[in-house]
């Protein structure tokens, strides 16, 4: 490992099918004015809302609600939530939902006491908060983003067609605690489950496909990928398999809680392409990634060939003996493609609502990262997007 870094992750995790009870231990640490933040209805259908409400009431909380946080939460919705939290003099924000709800809640937490416009400050100028941050806790119901243990908050601005993630440097923005009950994920539709699985896988790839030094982070990443492939195959056949779903939940957290990025420059260009597709189609995050991944990885493979050979060998068990590096690396990507198809992931952006005439505009919305194996120029972005159609 040749990089210099600091590591601190202050989020406390409670994991398992009895984990919600620990909300009773956490709530007394904060003030009584709690804002409960949730999505567009799933927690009312599956009973999680009632379970959480009961605990909030038993702890004497004054509760306000921000409901209807949509997948890919919007800037308009953020403004609405800031007002609710301000009017309630919120002491604590409790997110109950998936990555969208957790991200959104963090965005509210850094904006309630901020006099600047949050979009301009956090998503255009990428500044850190200089105001008091309202503490956040999460009860996770959808697995994939890692938002439960990181300082990321992705917001979509429909007016400017930009979907931007700010990964804050300030660890105070990470949730104070997250409750991870794999049972809560069992009501997810298959489409969301596999989208989340690919999101996890791609988070690991985005960090793995960078750098050339011998780095412990890469060995951890390979272990996480192998576990995810194994569990995803079981969950794909039997979504109610608790053991597989719990492994997937735990892998998701470690895939993006800053551990495997230590000492890595990281890439993140698949996410930039996927987020641009998402800004124009509002498609499910994980599917935007699966739809652009293979054209992207096939394109950058020659620039990071050694790592792609290692990926083939250590993650996909490709026998590399007697093969050229190109052949071995290709076999790794083919194995990944077969697995993606087996899960039923969306493999092209047309299926998500993108068309040829939108390519230039999607390219305009694509941010270029400079730390992976290949820094893309505009023509290359267009080429990859066209190949993803
Ligand atoms: O709105 P509700 O009713 O809750 O329904 C949701 C939503 O329709 C549903 N769902 C969640 N839990 C459920 C459930 N349905 C049945 N049973 C349950 N237990 O699933 C749908 C998707 O939920 P969402 O929260 O949007 O999914 P996800 O967790 O994938 O979050 C996506 C957002 O996270 C951002 C994405 O860009 C996107 O905006 N990301 C955040 C990251 C971070 N913080 O580091 C990194 C990621 O790369 C990602 O960009
Ligand atoms: Zn992601």
Description:
The chain is of the alpha/beta class. It has 2 domains: 173 residues, 3-Layer(aba) Sandwich (Rossmann fold), CATH 3.40.50.1970; 198 residues, Up-down Bundle (Dehydroquinate synthase-like, alpha domain). The protein has 15 helices and 8 strands. The protein has a 6-stranded parallel sheet with strand order 1-8-5-4-2-3, sandwiched between helices. The chain has a two-stranded antiparallel sheet with strand order 6-7. Helix 7 runs parallel beside helix 9, helix 8 packs antiparallel against helix 9 and helix 10 crosses helix 11. The protein is globular, with a radius of gyration of 20 Å. The mean pLDDT is 97. The protein binds 5,6-dihydroxy-NADP (NZQ) and zinc ion. The site of 5,6-dihydroxy-NADP has 34 residues, from helix 5, strand 6, helix 7 and helix 11. Zinc ion (ZN) binds next to helix 7.
The number of helical runs is 15
CATH homologous superfamily of the largest domain? Dehydroquinate synthase-like - alpha domain
- The CATH architecture term of the largest domain is Up-down Bundle
Main sheet properties? 6 strands, parallel
Which compounds are bound in this model? 5,6-dihydroxy-NADP, zinc ion
Count of domains:
2
Mean pLDDT score: 97
End-to-end separation in angstroms reads: 38 Å
Tell the overall outline.
globular
CATH class of the largest domain: Mainly Alpha
H/E element sequence: EHEHHEHEHHEEEEHHHHHHHHH
> What fraction of residues sit in β-strands?
5-15%
């Amino acid at each position: 490992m040749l990089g210099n870094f600091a590591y601190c992750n202050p989020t406390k995790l409670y994991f398992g099918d009895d984990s919600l009870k620990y909300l009773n231990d956490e709530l007394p640490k904060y003030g009584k004015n709690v804002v409960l933040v949730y999505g567009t209805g799933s927690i009312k259908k599956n009973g999680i809302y009632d379970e959480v409400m009961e605990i909030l009431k038993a702890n004497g909380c004054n509760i306000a609600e921000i409901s209807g946080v949509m997948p890919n939460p919007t800037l308009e919705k953020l403004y609405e939530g800031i007002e609710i939290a301000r009017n309630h003099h919120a002491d604590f924000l409790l997110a109950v939902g998936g990555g969208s709800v957790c991200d959104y809640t963090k965005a509210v937490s850094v904006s309630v006491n901020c006099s600047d416009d949050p979009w301009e400050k956090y998503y255009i100028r990428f500044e850190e908060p200089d105001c008091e941050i309202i503490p956040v806790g999460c009860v996770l119901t959808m697995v994939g983003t890692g938002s439960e243990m990181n300082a990321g908050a992705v917001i979509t601005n429909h007016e400017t067609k930009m979907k931007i993630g700010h990964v804050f440097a300030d660890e105070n923005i990470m949730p104070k605690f997250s409750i991870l009950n794999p049972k809560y994920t069992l009501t997810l539709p298959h489409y969301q489950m596999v989208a989340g699985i690919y999101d996890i896988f791609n988070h690991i790839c985005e960090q793995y496909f960078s750098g050339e030094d011998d780095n412990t982070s890469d060995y951890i990443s390979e272990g996480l990928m192998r576990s995810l492939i194994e569990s995803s195959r079981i969950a794909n056949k039997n979504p109610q398999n608790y053991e597989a779903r719990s492994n997937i939940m735990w892998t998701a957290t470690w895939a993006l809680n800053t551990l495997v990025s230590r000492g890595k420059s990281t890439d993140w260009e698949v996410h930039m392409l996927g987020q641009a597709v998402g800004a124009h189609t509002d498609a499910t995050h994980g599917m935007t990634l699966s739809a652009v991944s293979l054209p992207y990885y096939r394109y950058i493979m020659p620039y990071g060939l050694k790592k792609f050979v290692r990926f083939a060998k250590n993650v996909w068990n490709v026998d590399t003996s007697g093969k050229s590096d190109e052949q071995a690396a290709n076999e790794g990507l083919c194995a990944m493609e077969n697995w993606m198809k087996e899960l039923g992931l969306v493999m092209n952006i047309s299926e998500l609502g993108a068309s040829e005439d939108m390519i230039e505009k999607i390219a305009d919305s694509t941010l270029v990262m400079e730390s992976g194996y290949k820094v893309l120029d505009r023509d290359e972005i267009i080429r990859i997007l066209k190949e993803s159609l």
